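Intended use. Records like the one below are meant for learning the mapping from a protein sequence to its folded structure. Do not use them to infer anything beyond what is encoded.
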Amino acid sequence: AWPGGFHLVFHRYLSFSYFTGERRLTMAQKAWQALEPGGALVLGRQDELQGREQELFEPWEGVEHIYRKLS
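Structure written out for the chain above:
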């Protein structure tokens, strides 16, 4: 398990660019667990959340590639 209590997690250019399927979802879930409520997940320019990953985070209004943890 990842440590928790973070307000900001960077996941750039690996997890959401090269991983697929369940591996991507697992990485999204681990980031979600590590973040405090309302915390931010920052992805790389070419990364995006897909499918069930979008159930964990919402886009941060007014900025690209930054997502807010949903409760």
